[in-house]
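Researcher: Go.
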Amino acid sequence: MHPALSIIFFSTLSGAGFGLVAVTSLTGQPDGSSVILAYPLFAPLFVGGTLASIGLLCSVAHLRRPDRAWRAFSQWRSSWLSREGIFAVAALLLLVPLAFANPIDSTLAIVLGLLASALSVLTVFATSMIYAQIRAVPAWRTALTPVLYLSFAASGGILAAAVLTSLFSLIAVTQGFYQPAARGQAFDGFAAVASMAIFIAWIVQSVWWIRLKRTGTGLSTIQSATGLERFGPTRLLEPPHTGSNYLTDEMGFVVGRRHASKLRILSLLCGGLLPLLLLLSTQISDLPISWQFVLSSLAFIFHLFGVGLSRWLFFAEARHTVSLYY
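Model: Structure:
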């Protein structure tokens, strides 16, 4: 399948954004700034909503007629794309009242947080089901696809939460606020959980790659498609077209096995190993808070880059059954 950059940016950024929204809605994140101390959820929800919105805008840019994107909402009964749009818009709209709610002793904030978290998870799940439902692409049609999308959204969201926690601690220290020990414990907690989430996400990705090796185009072959199995090997006498068309451009992307292997290793190193090492280095005793923020930020950037590479391979290595014809 053709790996369009707009879709890669969409799935990578929106996954991390909705992951951060879900984590913030469930756990809350105290802000170290005196300006918005009364609204501790504002900054993390704003960052998560921005990442998700940028991703959604990238997906709209992928459409041939972006001005008709609103029509996708009408097919919610049968289309996962339509459901994804509805869940995403509902989650983003819910962030407005939640961002200005104080989670301390606030039942409304708790209810809104649970709803926002559920809608964020449903959005990522709907995104994954857009691909997992396609029978003609056997590589995608597996329960591992939703698990893969949800695990990377969780790892990106928790890692982003760790970055913001270190940033808020840095703001509190530089502005001379009292810094309780709980702030350091909060960062350590997010860093530990993010490390586990990253490890699990790349285990899922590795299992997905192993399955891909034996999947190919599924059970269909040129022999079964033409009904000539009993006559032995079958081949086309000449190509079906002298030029390219929509099917060859979108469904027939080819990536060399050697290049794919290198990109897998690179994505695993950048998205998995490097972030884990950087998060581990933040636990060095007496490490300044500023370095915690720098190292965790680098971990987040490398993680997104690695996820983006794996998402590029997600499309580039998937073979549509129609490719048998070409």
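Model: The domain at 5-234+246-324 is CATH 1.20.1630 (Formate dehydrogenase/DMSO reductase fold).
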